[in-house]
Hints:
By secondary structure, this protein is an alpha/beta fold. The protein is built from 14 helices and 12 strands. The strands form 2 sheets. Strands 1-7-6-5-4-2-3 form a 7-stranded mixed beta sheet, with helices on both faces. Helix 13 (316-326) crosses helix 14 (375-387).
Amino acid sequence: MSEQQHRNKSGFETRAIHAGYEPDPMTGSVIPPIYATSTYKQDGVGGLRGGYEYSRSANPTRTALEGNLAALEEGERAFAFASGLAAEHTLVRALCQPGDHVVLPDDAYGGTFRLFDKVEQAWGLEHSAAPVSDVEAVRDAIRPGQTRLVWLETPTNPVLNIGDIEALAAVAHDAGALLVVDNTFASPYLQQPLILGADVVVHSTTKYAGGHSDVVGGALVVRDLELAERLTFHQNAIGAVAGPFDAWLVLRGLKTLGVRMDRHCDNAEQVVDFLTGHPAISQVIYPGLEEHPGHEVASRQMKRYGGMVSFRAAGGEAAALGVCERTEVFTLGESLGGVESLIEHPARMTHASVAGTALEVTADLVRLSVGIETVEDLLADLDHALAG
Ligand SMILES: Cc1ncc(COP(=O)(O)O)c(C=O)c1O
């Protein structure tokens, strides 16, 4: 089956395993080689083989990953970067000018906020924040004629708020802006923003896409070919590209994304059941819970509710820190989306950079990235840690 047929007709897992690469015609290699090369022999001046000239511009291992990601997100083109933030920075420079304005989630990932607040703002790009769950608040935050991007994370990091992708795409488009969706938490297995009207999908492929906590990477995916052309230029001009080994690791991870995500979701649902009503916990936050304010929207736009669970410790900051220090199967660490379960204290760890800003998170909050270990071991670990 040709790549195009895979894209158009195949199921998600088939695309995850096959899209982006045909077995090598010379050797039959089923898996793309790691093309550890910076340059390519030309057949006469300008006689490029397959368009390859220099590995900042393109590298066949990266091309395979980019083809795969485009197929999974049902986009036309994908671009792989050295990190999620490298992808975000390239996107901003490709689509914005000094004097433009961006609407950010009021609970954006801390590193995204820092990028806009400390780096892009110094270049002249303004930003303001609105809650992703409030379509009218996002509309009010838009400055007609100045707002170029509406930036959405859904679910958000770390409080798992849900934004209505379809509604926010309409709000952005009404104002002549583009909707960017950071799809890191859901992954394309659970949610495909381009189908719902988003213009650009952003990934930290470090997370569920890579899935094994062994690589840092990022990606952008688009449908519009004019946007793709600008991104092609800026990916090369800025040069924050994924190296071939990193691209290979992310591609390997994507092949099992579907089965991993189902297990992440299964385990997260059991963790949520266990935590709900526990005396040491004042609130469990998970979009799969009926009482979650974004439950209805999440049910509409997500296949399942994901592997991220947050909770607030009834005993406040000290209790939250204590739980983070006592777990043994849940490893205390930043990041998320790997096969292993992680626990962290956002206020002091991933979100320390937003302390003192409107995006500050409460100190009683604990975030879990529920992995795919044996679920009984995860529940026993939490039971022990919460007992103190
Ligand atoms: C939702 C989200 N977006 C973007 C990023 C940034 O990605 P990276 O760390 O790969 O630069 C992260 C990192 O944690 C994230 O959680």
